[in-house]
Write a structure and sequence with these properties.
mainly beta
Length: about 150
């Protein structure tokens, strides 16, 4: 459940920021759970976002999140679906960016180290065939010390 109340994802084209009110994407995308970090594909056909504490998440415990997506078909967004592994792994998954060609995503990298949850940073995942390849961890000097 959303601890902050109902917070719908809103889509607002940056080119019309001063001219158009935000648009609630409706029940196909918005749910009773918290949706975060919306990222739209360069062609405008895919919307990616993180959904928190949903029972279909890889780890449905309170506070864990998975990446979900919706497709724009004729101006309407389809029912959101959870992205499969390897995009969603263990816990606390998030998608932060997608390249202009739509073939590479920047994700949050989390793994278990022994019994403890360890946040390791970021990874890129490239499209391969009809799906996504394995995450390639980005080595960012000093990140582990933050």
């Amino acid at each position: 459940m959303n601890p902050f109340g109902y917070l719908p994802l809103l889509l607002l084209p940056l080119t019309t920021l001063a001219q158009q009110a935000p648009e609630n994407l409706g029940e196909a995308v918005n749910s009773e759970y918290t949706e975060l970090n919306p990222v739209i594909s360069p062609d405008g056909k895919m919307l990616y976002f993180a959904r928190v504490s949903h029972p279909q998440n890889t780890n449905p415990q309170k506070g864990s999140q998975d990446v979900w997506f919706s497709e724009n078909q004729g101006g309407y967004w389809t029912a959101a679906r959870r992205m499969p592994s390897p995009v969603n792994r263990e816990e606390h998954n998030a998608l932060y960016s997608i390249t202009p060609d739509g073939n590479t995503i920047l994700t949050h990298w989390v793994t278990h180290d022994g019994g403890d949850l360890s946040i390791r940073g970021f990874a890129v995942i490239k499209k391969q065939g009809g799906g996504w390849g394995q995450p390639l961890k980005l080595d960012i000097p000093g990140l582990d010390n933050l």
